[in-house]
Design goal:
216 residues, alpha+beta, six-stranded antiparallel beta sheet, two-stranded antiparallel sheet, 4 helices, disordered N terminus, DUF8175 domain-containing protein, DUF8175
Length: 216
């Protein structure tokens, strides 16, 4: 699968048999000459907004549904996101909120289908069992989504900052990561040992934020 990464180091190849080097060099030279007039692949557009956005309520919070996903809701889990920067951005918004406010009958299906397996997922599930959420999110604490900003992207992984506003007009950014797993974007929860803050207060949105603003 071809991948474009921003930023991304490249690893060079090396011939596996020394005596094949002259032949390999000739082939590489021919390839360079033959491709000399071609255009380099354009980098992915990290600022492309989702299209045909609809706002669907979940637990008292409006979540975006668009041409880039989600395309299905099964047993409470939202799945089916386009493998593009826009699909990754929408997936980050949807997964982060759904996981945070899912009730006791929803969260196990959501974490199974919207989160990348691993120690972080397991620890989150252990902690979630000890809580109880039986109804919609309290309007005082319910987030209103404002948009997202992709800070790193490849067709396998994206770092996405998700911006929200609260009832007291305060704003916050949720630093998330989504990965392409089982042919869909899923949320990668932070390493349990990480000391990095997953959420920070903000006063203004960066100028390159892709605005996907929920209705008030």
């Amino acid at each position: 699968m071809k991948s474009t990464v921003i930023p991304a180091p490249r690893r060079s190849g090396r011939p596996y048999v020394l005596r094949a080097a002259p032949v390999l060099s000739a082939l590489l030279l021919a390839g360079v000459v033959g491709c000399g007039g071609g255009d380099a692949a354009a980098p992915p557009d990290l600022s492309a907004p989702p299209t045909n956005v609809r706002w669907v309520p979940f637990q008292g919070v409006s979540l975006p549904h668009s041409d880039q996903g989600p395309t299905a809701q099964t047993d409470g889990a939202a799945t089916g996101f386009e493998q593009t920067p826009t699909g990754a951005g929408v997936a980050a918004m949807v997964h982060a909120v759904r996981l945070a406010i899912a009730d006791d009958g929803q969260w196990s299906n959501i974490v199974a289908r919207e989160v990348v397996p691993g120690p972080a997922k397991d620890e989150w599930a252990v902690n979630r069992v000890q809580l109880s959420i039986s109804g919609p999110a309290d309007p005082v604490y319910a987030p209103r989504l404002l948009g997202y900003r992709i800070t790193e992207y490849s067709d396998q992984r994206a770092a996405v900052d998700v911006y929200s506003e609260y009832s007291d007009s305060s704003r916050a950014v949720n630093h998330t990561t989504v990965e392409w797993f089982a042919r869909d974007w899923r949320l990668r929860l932070p390493d349990p040992k990480s000391t990095t803050r997953p959420i920070d207060p903000v006063t203004e949105l960066p100028s390159d934020t892709v605005k996907v603003e929920a209705p008030k």
